[in-house]
């Protein structure tokens, strides 16, 4: 039996905290994420 964990790892790139972040689309330098969606 393998000792590797089978727990899925969170790979989301969406920030959980509101604030200014580099634009994931590259359209703008920064975009504001309100904790739920990009504005």
Describe this structure in words.
With 39 residues, this protein is mostly beta strands. The chain is built from no helices and two strands. A hairpin with a 7-residue loop joins strand 1 (19-22) and strand 2. The mean pLDDT is 81.
Largest sheet: 2 strands, antiparallel
Low-confidence segments, given as residue ranges, are none
Q: What string, H for helix and E for strand, traces the elements in order?
A: EE
Category by helix and strand content: mainly beta
User: Count the helices. How many?
Assistant: 0
List the defining traits of the structure above.
39 residues, mainly beta
Which helices and strands occur, and which strands form pairs?
Blueprint: E1 19-22, E2 30-33
Antiparallel strand pairs: 1-2
Gist of the model:
The chain is mostly beta strands and 39 residues long. 0% of the residues lie in helices and 21% in strands.
